[in-house]
């Protein structure tokens, strides 16, 4: 069976995903596209040689009876509406992060999905499919380092443009750590505090860079997460978990080690699209395969989107207040308690 897909938002990641579906993965075909910038939608059809209808908006695209699944790859503030109308129409949804821009929006989606009666939505937290994170999670789940006590991690980008403001360190960047870390250690967050170290000269007036987020979990694990988006030297994701019996660290990206002229060197990537290319491929293949095989997606759920939104809201408050802020999650509904998949 080929799953017929409609893509809402044909910008950077929308195009990346279209390319994946058409040229790399199996079991899906893009049959409809839309973008508020209609030129961009037509260009995607032309560039990827799609046999697809261009719709004027998300409502008309979702109304296409031939579409089985909707990819929401528009700007964050537009996600909630598109996801809700897709659920209403009973379509599967792959939604890029954020699921919605705040906790209330995520809860509206969670309610609509439960009312529908089976899982339809997967959120684009692709790190759960990254081979290094999968290995790290296996080590923790197999109790190789005993109980986790502390985590130190970094999310570093070489540079960002002037549109990237202080709050985006949370909503665009830390959001990936927020999802990956609670999944890694099977724990929930309890509070967060933010510190602003000395600001790099490579930043601009409306961006505090770097930032350090100190999260505590309900079981007492202390997490120090650094976001440094003008680090200059490359795109670098680090994560180290300190346990009672040892330490487990995210593997470095494989790169040849050169010994030359009295130096040892290896390359660091510059681009997140390349760093997580395999993970994006696996998450989308898993989305398509799960729909075909078990009739519902198995990846990160709408509830994971809600957890990320509540935590991100608290991080934003902590940025503003300089105080430690509590993170209060509602109880997980039974609907979302089912084990999510194992991938590698
Ligand atoms: N999982 C990941 O690693 C990544 C996730 N993202 C997320 O994907 C989303 C898109 O990001 P980019 O592609 O980088 O942005 P982009 O700005 O390149 O593309 C967004 C596109 O959506 C269109 N759009 C906006 N509102 C719309 C609406 N109501 N209906 C239809 N089209 C609409 C825009 O015209 C634009 O073409 C964001 O939420 C972003 O956070 C982006 C990059 C990586
Ligand atoms: O979502 C993403 C981008 O928006 C963001 O700019 C990058 O830093 C992230 O690592 C990437 O995964």
TrEMBL record:
EC number(s) given by UniProt: 1.1.1.18, 1.1.1.369
Keywords, sorted A to Z: NAD, Oxidoreductase
Gfo/Idh/MocA-like oxidoreductase C-terminal domain: residues covered: 137-326
Pfam families assigned: GFO_IDH_MocA (PF01408), GFO_IDH_MocA_C (PF02894)
Keyword set includes Oxidoreductase: yes
NAD listed as a keyword: yes
Pathway: Polyol metabolism; myo-inositol degradation into acetyl-CoA; acetyl-CoA from myo-inositol: step 1/7
Membrane spanning stretches: none
Class of enzymatic activity (EC top level): oxidoreductase
Annotated catalysed reactions: myo-inositol + NAD(+) = scyllo-inosose + NADH + H(+); 1D-chiro-inositol + NAD(+) = scyllo-inosine + NADH + H(+)
Domain Gfo/Idh/MocA-like oxidoreductase N-terminal: start-end pairs: 3-125
Family to which this protein belongs: Belongs to the Gfo/Idh/MocA family.
Function as written in the Swiss-Prot or TrEMBL entry: Involved in the oxidation of myo-inositol (MI) and D-chiro-inositol (DCI) to 2-keto-myo-inositol (2KMI or 2-inosose) and 1-keto-D-chiro-inositol (1KDCI), respectively.
Oligomer and partners: Homotetramer.
Protein name: Inositol 2-dehydrogenase/D-chiro-inositol 3-dehydrogenase
Origin species: Halobacillus shinanisalinarum
Designated gene of the protein: iolG
């Amino acid at each position: 069976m080929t799953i017929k897909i409609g893509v809402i938002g044909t910008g950077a990641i929308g195009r990346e995903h279209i390319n994946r579906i058409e040229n790399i993965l199996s079991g899906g075909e893009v049959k409809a596209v839309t973008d508020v910038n209609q030129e961009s939608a037509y260009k995607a059809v032309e560039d990827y040689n799609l046999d697809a209808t261009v719709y004027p908006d998300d409502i008309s695209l979702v109304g296409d009876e031939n579409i089985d699944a909707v990819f929401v790859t528009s700007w964050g503030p537009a996600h909630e509406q598109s996801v809700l109308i897709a659920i209403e129409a009973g379509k599967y949804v792959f939604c890029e992060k954020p699921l919605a821009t705040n906790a209330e929006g995520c809860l509206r989606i969670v309610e609509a999905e439960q009312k529908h009666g089976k899982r339809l939505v997967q959120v684009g937290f692709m790190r759960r499919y990254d081979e290094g994170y999968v290995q790290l999670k296996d080590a923790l789940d197999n109790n190789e380092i005993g109980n986790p006590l502390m985590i130190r991690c970094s999310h570093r980008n070489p540079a960002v443009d002037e549109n990237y403001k202080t709050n985006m360190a949370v909503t665009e960047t830390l959001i990936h750590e927020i999802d990956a870390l609670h999944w890694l250690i099977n724990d929930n967050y309890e509070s967060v505090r933010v510190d602003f170290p000395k600001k790099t000269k490579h930043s601009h007036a409306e961006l505090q860079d770097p930032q350090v987020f100190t999260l505590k979990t309900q079981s007492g694990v202390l997490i120090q997460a650094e976001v440094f988006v003008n680090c200059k030297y490359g795109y670098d994701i680090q994560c180290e978990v300190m346990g009672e019996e040892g330490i487990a660290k995210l593997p470095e990206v494989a790169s040849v080690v050169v010994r030359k002229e009295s130096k040892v060197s290896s390359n660091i990537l510059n681009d997140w699209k390349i760093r997580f290319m395999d993970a994006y491929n696996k998450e989308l293949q898993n989305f398509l395969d799960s729909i075909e095989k078990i009739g519902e997606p198995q990846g990160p759920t709408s509830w994971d989107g809600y957890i990320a939104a509540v935590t991100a809201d608290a991080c934003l408050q902590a940025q503003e207040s300089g105080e430690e802020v509590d993170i209060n999650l509602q109880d997980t509904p039974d609907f979302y308690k089912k084990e999510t998949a194992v991938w590698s």
